[in-house]
Structures are given as C-alpha cells and as structure tokens.
Amino acid sequence: MDPARKPAPISRAKSLSDVAAWSASLSVFRRNLRDWGDHVRTLTVRAHAIGSVILPPRLLRGKFPEGAVADAWLAAYAEYVCLHASADIPEWALKPNRILAAPSFDDGVVDPRQRALALDQSPEAFRRRNIFTTAVDLPLRF
C-alpha cells in the first residue's frame, strides 16, 4: 500500500436515520442495525440515546423487498429506547406506515415452539408493530 494513502475510516450507524440511509438490502440493514445497537449500548446519557432515534429515518418499503419489515423494526427500536429513557416516542415511530399488516417472526421462524416463545417474549414496542422476536438485546445503561 502506498504510505501516502491512509485507509478510509469506516462509518458506523449512530442513529436509526443512518441505519435507513445506508441500507439497500435486508442484510445490509441488519448489519447497520447491529452497529447502531453497539453504539447505543455504550451510551450512558439519556439525551444521547434519544438523539439516536429522534430523527425520522427514510422509509425503506419499496427500496428492497423486505423494506416494510425494516421500517417496523426501526420504529419498534425507537419506541423501545424512548420507553427505557422515559421520553416521548417520536411521532414518526407511531405512524401506520411503520406497522406490519401481517405478523413477522425472526428470520421466518416456523417451529411452533419458537413462535410461541417469540409471541410471549417480544417487547410491547415490537408487538405493537406485529414483530415477534426473542432477539431484542439492547441493555441500556443510563
């Protein structure tokens, strides 16, 4: 490598708006969402966590086949963070276009026992958007 050239820094999502802006497929969305989650886990100030969810992310429905699912996940995480931070849920996260018409289970889980577990353990913010998951791992430390 040419010593005069430095590698470009890697940008990682620090807001849900970044997650949406940088996602062109479900697999990229998942990576960006994990990066955002890693960032939020390090935050110790409520205002910083709220700042990471307050800006409305662009809608992803129509951008890739699973875009509506991604839109619902973004809204669910925004509500989840705000509830844990004792903050008002952003208006964008409450809009009907962020709610799935049909239930969505993690990665298309079909095993009845896993579905029952997801139905039972999904946080309310996710259930409200028809998302059923046991994979919400976002401990917040304010």
Most strands sheet: 2 strands, parallel
Rg for CA atoms: 16 Å
Q: Are there runs of 5+ residues with pLDDT below 50, and where? A: none
Order of neighbouring strands in the sheet with most strands: 1-2
What is the overall shape? globular
Q: Whole-Å distance between the termini?
A: 43 Å
Structural class, please?
mainly alpha
Mean pLDDT: 93
Protein described:
- The protein has 142 residues and is an all-alpha fold.
- It has a domain at 16-98.
- Helix content is 44%, strand content 3%.
- It contains six helices and two strands, in the order H-H-H-H-E-H-H-E.
- The protein has helices spanning 16-21, 26-41, 46-54, 67-84, 112-121, 124-127; strands spanning 104-105, 131-132.
- A two-stranded parallel sheet has the order 1-2.
- Helix 3 (46-54) runs antiparallel to helix 4 (67-84).
- The chain is globular, with a radius of gyration of 16 Å.
Give the structure's gist in a few sentences:
The chain is an all-alpha fold.
Structural topology:
Blueprint: H1 16-21, H2 26-41, H3 46-54, H4 67-84, E1 104-105, H5 112-121, H6 124-127, E2 131-132
Parallel strand pairs: 1-2
Helix pairs in contact: 3-4
List keywords for this structure.
142 residues, globular, two-stranded parallel ribbon
